[in-house]
Amino acid sequence: MPAAHQESDKPPSPHRLCVAPMLDWTDRHCRYFHRLLAPSAFLYSEMITTGALLHGKPERHLDFSSEEKPVALQLGGSDPDALAHAAQLGAQWGYNEINLNVGCPSDRVQQGRFGACLMKEPSLVADCLQAMSEAVNVPVTLKTRIGVDEMESYESLRDFIDTCQRSGCRTVIIHARKAWLQGLSPKQNRTIPPLKYDYAYRLKQDFPGLEVIVNGGIENADQAYKHLQHVDGVMIGRAAWNTPWVLTDMQRALLPPHAHTPETRDSVLQQYRSYCQRQIRHGTPLNWLIRPILGLYHGLPGNRLWKNHLVSQAARRPTDITILEEARQKIPHPAGSV
Ligand SMILES: Cc1cc2nc3c(=O)[nH]c(=O)nc-3n(C[C@H](O)[C@H](O)[C@H](O)COP(=O)(O)O)c2cc1C
User: Fold this and answer.
1) 28 Cα: distance to centroid of ligand 1 (angstroms)
2) Higher-scoring residue by pLDDT: 100, 110
């Protein structure tokens, strides 16, 4: 695999490597951890609904650490005015991009008439994107499926994207499987409908000026590299949570050299430890902070003991940072070596 920077003289897209929005997972702590692993990745917040943002306490949803940048705020909603207002809040808070979720198939989201079911209302999606774009100075992007229910041909996806891009949206993230709006849970909708990466590749051919990011089932740097021969970027979801070190592999293999790319998992743990100490002082319990790092030593001997120690002890001793060193000792490799 040639190194990213040897491929062309053009600077790589800022979206060449993205980490997916994942509800309950990619909160600010998880994103901080992912930033340590992949210094140039583009990170996405979990989906925040316009209702939660406009009628709740925005700081609860929007606060983040500046180290997370570049970071996008993902919004869920279908009312152009509410989305414009929510996008403004996101831009004021310093998010680098506002993304609209048109991919979530959950019942709750459908009842609110947003997420994947919006694929059936292209002109409404275009109105939303336009209202958001007019409200902020940062890019407004779209994350969508390749179809919903019987709407599954490439042509219907192309027409949908065509309508969206007329609103000025220049970047689309394509989760390359369709969603069934009835009968499948969100989890099943992430595994059962088959992946059709060629739909994303064809979009890039049909809309060469559009930045196309492909998402779904990408697990390692080799797979990501193959997609990048066809599209501008890859977005990694579950693999970033289950096997986070792949983000460092991808950073190295796909992006120009970056001085802060970590050499070892242990160095990442040290840096995340300092972050945890600060967060504990602000009242965040350790059992919340450890969630994204459980997979850090995936594949190494002692991995299961590492995880068990973190989970069991952090629940009992939510402010005791030494749990991290204790758990690390379950991995037989000498400290600093992996
Ligand atoms: C726990 C979980 C929560 C998710 N929440 C969101 C979300 O808030 N917004 C969204 O657009 N997609 C969400 N997704 C979908 C992911 O962004 C991604 O599209 C999907 O997992 C496919 O990518 P992957 O195969 O790399 O995981 C979620 C996925 C998971 C596993």
Assistant:
1) 16
2) 100
266 close to ligand 1 (CB < 6 Angstrom): no
Domain termination site, one of 201, 219, 254? 254
Last residue of one domain, picked from the residues 254, 284, 299: 254
Q: pTM for this structure?
A: 0.97
**Which pLDDT band holds residue 112 (cuts at 50, 70, 90)?**
confident
CB of residue 14 inside a 6 A radius of ligand 1: no
Tokens in use for 59? 């700081």
Asked whether residue 1 carries a pLDDT value surpassing 80, the answer given is no
Q: Taking residues 139-151, report their average pLDDT.
A: 97
Q: Is the CB of 21 under 6 A from ligand 1?
A: yes
pLDDT of residue 108: 84
Instruction: For residue 18, indicate whether it is catalytic.
Output: no
Please pick, among 30, 104, 128, 164, the residue that the annotation labels catalytic. 104
- Residue 73 inside a domain? The answer is yes
Q: Same domain for 247 and 202?
A: yes
Query: What digits encode the pLDDT tens for the residues 248-302?
Result: 999 999 999 999 999 999 999 999 999 999 999 999 999 999 999 999 999 999 9
Q: Say how many Å lie between the CA of residue 229 and the centre of ligand 1.
A: 23
Torsion of CA 244, 250, 252, 257, to 10 degrees: -110
Look over the chain and give the mean of its residue pLDDT values, rounded to a whole number: 96
> Which structural domain range is residue 187 located in?
9-254
Q: How many CB atoms lie within 10 A of CB 78?
A: 21
In a domain? residue 44: yes
**Going by C-beta distance under 8 Å and a sequence separation of 6 or more, which residues neighbour residue 330?**
302, 305, 306, 309
Q: Which two tokens stand for residue 19?
A: 């980490």
> Which ligand 1 atom is nearest residue 25's CA?
1
**Which CATH number goes with the domain that contains 87?**
3.20.20.70
Domain-embedded: residue 1: no
303-325 core/surface letters (b: 16 or more CB in 10 A; e: else): beebbebbeebbeeebeeeebbe
